[in-house]
Amino acid sequence: MHVPRDARSLTSTRVTLLTEGTYPHSHGGVSVWCDQLVTGMPDVDFDVIAVTGTGREPIVWDVPAQVADVVAVPLWGPAPGGRPPRGRRRNQLTSAYEQFLTALLDPCAEDRFATALYTMARAAADGMLSPFLRGDRAIGVLAGVWNRPGLAVREARPTLHDAVTATALLEHALRPLTAPLPEHGVAHAVSGGVAVLPGLAALERHGVPLLLTEHGVYLRERYLGYRTAPYRWPVKAVALGFFRLLAEETYRRAALITPGNRYNRLWEEQGGAAPESIRTVYNGVDPAAFPPAGPEPERPTLSWAGRVDPIKDLETLIRAFALVRAQLPDARLRLFGGTPRGGEAYRERCEALAAELGQAEAVSFEGRVDDIKDAYAAGNVVMLSSISEGFPFTLIEAMSCGRATVSTDVGGVREAVGDSGLVVPPRDPGAMAAAALELLGDTGRRAAMGEAARLRVIEQFTLRQTVDTFRTVYLELSALGRIVPGPPGPSGAPLTVPGGRVAASGSRSLAG
């Protein structure tokens, strides 16, 4: 889907946001962050390349006028058009794809990944990659690669069905390479993974600087997700090899990386990012938009806000609440937030767990709320139970509202909370219940923590600070003009200009 907007000046700063499953087709924390950027910078022109699910997702945000184009790239919709390559182009693509697969499966061949990826990107731009990957030749190439003597994956005895499955997963994952590439300005990927593909291709082809912001660690979340994915190990080896090498290539080639917390920075450095290319930029909220929530509910209540998703680990929260209710029979748990399409089974599982534990009448799934502040005001204590987070909006919003919080120690949570809330290990219902009971039983401590939390937001995590920081980054990256792409560096070796770094001789490092 292509949404044209009003024309804008070609002399102004231009930014192409690269998103996956978020803005402007979905609600949630990252979408809120994107909306804050575009609405907070009426002086900056934006485009959006949005990786979506089926392509039928509606635009759910009121897209401002400075967003000129929204291009959706569905991963699971109808296959992209085009035709398979023939003759010499077919042989070239077959060779590149063989190198690509070898890099995914053979640790000694990982330096072939980047060259093969960019060859495949050019084939995608010409409408040849997807038809090639849907053909028998691609399946045969994979079957040949992972059955080579000496490869660990061979010991798992991959089958033809595995080859078909893995090839299909790669075909879908590489579809963002068919998007129209930005040719000017800055490409800003607001997550790692497949959303970055158009940005890498634009850097390689047009020299467009790539900015990467990771709210959560995309690679870590893929590892978590594939633990329970319904695939045999050979398929997982291909998929996780792709995500790992894509992350490493992104970290090497990005002009600047702006993680939302220091925890993400550690992952990025481990993945090959040069420390001087990283600058932590925290999420921010407008304290005036999230004022003190006012009186607490009379009945002891835990509230939670977010999307109903396995990464939020509502099952641990429900188990913790059952332990709380054993001590406080009058307690309630109120869960606010929508269920993404495809997530209905997880919500049903959570509802079934609450019933199994005898808590069905005290646990309420209340869906999306018109004003998110009402979700925070609904609880004496606001809970966050996630197994993976970046720098969660729901947490700093609740803090701005002056509510005491109990959160899991993931991502940037501890950086956000400081001493103004309680932090517990993830997937530990006992520790979560003990912390909730501690706060529910001490009105004075709850009030003191809520006041400290709001003050912490005002001092450190305001929206104005975030927007001003990114405006400066956009202007400085735009001033670089086009980066002359150099050859991809070997795995683990950061590149220097030419090739993606911005701290050239005579220029000021943006990572400061």
UniProtKB/TrEMBL annotation:
Per its record, how is this protein called by name? D-inositol 3-phosphate glycosyltransferase
Residue ranges of the DUF3492 domain? 14-276
User: What organism, scientifically named, is this protein from?
Assistant: Streptomyces triticiradicis
Say which domain of life the source belongs to: Bacteria
Upper lineage is: Bacteria, Bacillati, Actinomycetota, Actinomycetes, Kitasatosporales
Q: Which Pfam family, any one of them, does this sequence belong to? A: DUF3492
Q: Which NCBIfam families match?
A: PelF
Q: Where is this region: Disordered?
A: 486-512
Q: Name one GO molecular function term.
A: glycosyltransferase activity
InterPro entries annotated for this entry? DUF3492, PelF-like
